[in-house]
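To: structure subgroup
Subject: Chain for Friday's discussion

All,

I'm putting the inputs and outputs inline so they're searchable in the archive.
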Amino acid sequence: MLRPANNLQNKAFYALLIGALGDWFSTRLGLSHGLVEGNRIAQTLMSTGSWIQTDFILVFICFTVPFLVNRITDEKMPKQLFWMPLFAGLLKLGVSVWNFTQILG
């Protein structure tokens, strides 16, 4: 049967959600202020109009894979999968802070 959420899972999901929203918002804000995207992959996705969709899919996968694996299996190892969205969320939070320093600086 399905198991309840744990503390690491909640931290990981909130970090990823806040990081993704911060990255999306700060990138859009920076571009509207005349800044240029430094990530070439993101530049290519933005030029084709598929940046938000691709980023949403990646965030969705980072959410669902650890969630489902942890709920389906009875082993303790799947809990280690929550480090992936936590790390991704912290990276996105770092990118958000960097973007805001570029906008304000």
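Points worth raising on Friday:
Helices lie at 7-32, 40-48, 51-72, 83-104.
The two ends are 52 Å apart (CA to CA).

D.
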